[in-house]
C-alpha cells in the first residue's frame, strides 16, 4: 500500500516522501501491457495477437517506468488535495539521480519531493489609519491652455510644404531617436514620429534648425532643446513618456517642413473640436478645453495614486516567502532551465510580482471583488461603442454579431477581465486608506519621485 509522509525542512519548505510497492503499480503495468498487445504492430504477428511476453520484452521497461511514475504522481497530488496543502508552483524532485527500474524484479520505491508553502498573512497597510497617500490635483495654466489651442489650430489648419525652415511658425515632421551625445542610437531606446512646432524649441535649438531641410538631423539634449516650463509637456504629451528625460539625448531627423495657416477661433472650429457641445464663444471654448485638459491630468493623478497604493501593499505587507525553494523552482520551472546565477538575477522582479499576486488574490476572494462575465460583456460593448462613435447604436444587428465574435476571443476577454478586476480592486482599496489632496503644477507632478525603488525583501 502506498504511503505519503511529510516533514519540514525549512521556512515554508517541506519534504514529501512517496513510497510505492508492487501492489500499487503492478496491476496497471499488466493492464497497460495487455492493452498494447491488442494494438501493437509487430512483424510476424497479426494485429491484436501479439503475446504479452513479446510486448514486455520489447517495451516492458518503458511501460514499467511510466506506470510507477504515474502512480507516484497520483499519490502525491491526491495527498496535497486531501490535506488541502496550499503550495507554490509544482513540487520539485529531490532525487539527484534518475532511478533505475527493472520490470523483471518489481520492488518498493521511494520518491522525495520538496514543496514551497503559501504563507498566511494580513494586508496590514489597509488597516484603519495605517496608510496615507496623496492625490495630486493639476490645474491647467493659461500657458498650457494657449499651447493646446494653438496645437488644435495648427492641426486643423491648411498646410503647405516648404523647402526649408525659415520661421518659428514652421511645423516639422520629426523622426525622434534616443541616442548618445554623438548621435549613436541607444539600443532599446525611444523611436517615434512626431509633429512639432519650431517655436516650441529653445532659442538655441531654433537657431540650429534655421535653414535645415528634409533629411537633415541634429542631436540635442532634452533639457537644452525644450524650455523647462515645456519639458513636462514634451515628455508627457509629445513623446508619451513618464520617466524623467531631461538628461537624455535625442537625434531629430526632419521628415517634412510645413507652414500651416492656423484655424480661426470661430463656431465652425469649436464644433469640430467638440462635436457634441453647443459652443459659440471663445470664452466657452476655453472653459471646456481647460476642463478636458484637467480631466486628462486627473486620470494621470489617479494612476499615480493607484501605483503608490500598489507599491505600499507590495512592500509593506509582511509576507514570508520560501525564497530558496522559489529560486530553485525558477531554475527548473520555466520553458528553459536557468543557472543559479540567472535565477538570482530574476528573483527580485519575480518576488515583487508574486507578492502582488498573493495580496490581490486574497483581497479579491475575501471581499468578493470578482468580475462576472456579464460585466465583462457590458464593458466590451462600451469599448466598441466608444470606438465606433455614432456608427454604433445599442441593438444594431452588426453590433450584436461583432460582439459575439469579439467575446469568442479568449485573449480579449481575459485582458478585459484583468483590467476590470484590477480597477475594481484599486477602487475598493482606495477607500481603505487616508487620501489627502495636494495641488501641484504639471512640472512638479512629473518630477515626483517613485514611491519605491527596490524589490528585495
List the helices and strands and how they pair.
Elements: E1 3-10, E2 13-20, H1 22-39, H2 52-82, E3 87-93, E4 109-117, E5 132-138, H3 142-155, E6 158-161, E7 170-179, E8 191-197, H4 203-209, E9 217-221, H5 222-225, H6 228-238, E10 249-261, H7 267-273, H8 282-316, H9 323-332, H10 340-366, H11 373-388, H12 397-406, H13 410-430, E11 434-440, H14 442-446
Short description:
The chain has 457 residues and is α+β, with helices and mostly antiparallel strands. The chain contains 14 helices and eleven strands.
Could you explain the architecture of this structure?
There is one protein chain. By secondary structure, the protein is α+β, with helices and mostly antiparallel strands. It has three domains: 3-117, Trigger factor ribosome-binding domain (Alpha-Beta Plaits); 158-261, Transcription elongation factor, GreA/GreB, C-terminal domain (Chitinase A, domain 3, Roll); 290-446, Orthogonal Bundle (Trigger factor, domain 2). The protein contains 14 helices and eleven strands. The strands form three sheets. Strands 6, 7, 8, 9 and 10 form a five-stranded antiparallel beta sheet that branches. The protein has a four-stranded antiparallel beta sheet with strand order 1-2-4-3, sandwiched between helices. α1 (22-39) crosses α2 (52-82) and α11 (373-388) packs across α13 (410-430). The two termini are 44 Å apart.
Which sequence of SSEs, written as H and E, runs from N to C?
EEHHEEEHEEEHEHHEHHHHHHHEH
Beta fraction: 15-25%
The helix/strand class is alpha+beta
Total number of β-strand segments?
A: 11
CATH topology heading of the largest domain: Trigger factor, domain 2
Using the alpha-carbon principal axes, give the shape: elongated
Reported for the largest beta sheet, the result is: 5 strands, antiparallel
| C-alpha termini separation | 44 Å
Q: How much helix is in the residues?
A: 40-55%
Number of domains: 3
Unreliable stretches, pLDDT < 50, 5 or more residues?
453-457
| Overall average pLDDT | 90
- State the oligomer: single chain
The CATH class of the largest domain, by name, is Mainly Alpha
* Known CATH architecture of the largest domain: Orthogonal Bundle
| Rg measurement, Å | 33 Å
- Please count the helical segments: 14
